[in-house]
Amino acid sequence: MRxxxxxxxxxxxxxxxxxxxxxxxxxxxxxxxxxxxxKLFRMRAVxxxxxxIPEERGTTAPAxxxxxxxxxxxxxPLSDDPRYPRVEFVLPGPDGEPEVYGVEISGxxxxxxxxxxxxxxxxxxxxxxxxxxxxxETPGLGAEVTRFxxxxxxxxxxKLAPGERPLTMVAEGTELGPHEVYAVTGATQxxxxxxxxxxVQLDQWRTGLAVREQxxxxxxxxxxxxxxxLPAEAQxxxx
Length: 239
Fold this sequence. Notes:
Blueprint: H1 7-49, H2 63-70, E1 74-77, E2 87-92, E3 98-108, E4 113-121, E5 127-134, E6 168-170, E7 180-182, H3 188-211, E8 219-220, H4 232-238
Parallel strand pairs: 6-7
Antiparallel strand pairs: 1-2, 1-8, 2-3, 3-4, 4-5
């Protein structure tokens, strides 16, 4: 080594190049599968929130069943924000009228982005379910928003209140009113931030629903990827 002071540098350079190259090859080889799994996770959140697959089977239902239920839906974009893309999903009934809505919500949590789906009955005010497909909150605290037994179950059957605050979060143990849900114990900031963007976006969705003279023509899920770039006509609608 004393005669070859360059050897450790060359050795580390070669070793780093070999392992970096292997990681790049592995990432490229699994890119399609990772993207499909991410979409499947989001699809699963949508169909469970809308009650198309029971909560108890939400994590175990086969991918084929999840995709089949998802294909029954129509959709329309709610946001063109690339960081917080949101979509409204609709299960049309035999007469073409909506049977249940799936309203995506997305915003800044305590640490980073949070995204989920609120299932709402055809009446436009009764919550069917809530799921989250993206969150980076503290395990055991803010991350408890993903658990049905600790947080999400309290949304089922709640009513969206009139005004700018459709749902109010209260301390656990309080008797719940028709428009109230329990906040996450020990995660005040997560609960506060979630309530803030969730209420703004639910109120915006409900306002849009109220002013529609008839259900708008919605694009079937299978026609264009709802999780991809917005179609040209949807982009124009936001301009």
